[in-house]
Amino acid sequence: MIRFIILLMPIVILFMGCNKEMENQEETIYSEIISELIDDNSHYEGLNIYLKNKGISIEDELIDIDSIYSEYLKFRKIKINKTLYISRRLKPIDYEGLKILKDERKLNSIFLFEHKEDRLLDLDLIYSEFYNFKNIRNNINFDLEIGAIEFSRIYFNSDKSQGFFYFKFLCGSLCGYENYVFLKKENNRWKITKQELIASY
Q1: CA within 20 to 30 Å of 144's CA: 11, 152, 173, 184, which one?
Q2: Which sequence spans correspond to the domains of the chain?
Q3: Coil, strand, or helix at residue 38?
Q4: In the chain, at which residue ranges do the beta strands (DSSP E only) sit?
């Protein structure tokens, strides 16, 4: 019996190591693509703030709106230390969602649908030059903070070169959208290849 346990231990350790590697891979992927998921304009100061800092009034009839806007796009400042809230709980995509993906998009021959349990996202492993990340909370000031996001587990193909997941972004009380996001690994980095809108509000 002891000999059996000793022989079994390397297999258990190997399995646990692979499982941990997959979990860390989810954090790595979300770090690499998170800035692509959020509207690029949310990374920058708004036009009104830019004009105010320049001492320009939008009501001035002598200003050229087109040239001012072009200047704004060129010189606007990136927002620093904006807070983006993330739900730490990564959930599997629900059965109906998976059924639609399998039946309508014929993904069952490409992706492995192995996730059956939630797991907690390690926010310390998520990085972006644009955001500070915090665990999601109920009261969010959307004037001061970017918004809140929720991810599902990532579903991979057999060689882990493609993947997809569910993504939800809230930018206000009546502002947000839900997408299926499809990924591909190129040159050792993950890129978004397609997003399919599920809902917007």
Answers
A1: 152
A2: 2-38+79-200, 45-78
A3: coil
A4: 82-86, 89-90, 119-120, 131-135, 147-151, 155-156, 162-172, 175-186, 189-200
pTM: 0.68
Q: Running DSSP on this structure, what letter comes out for residue 152?
A: B
| Exposed/middle/buried for residue 180 (C-beta within 10 Å: 0-12, 13-18, 19+) | buried
Structure tokens at 194: 């397609």
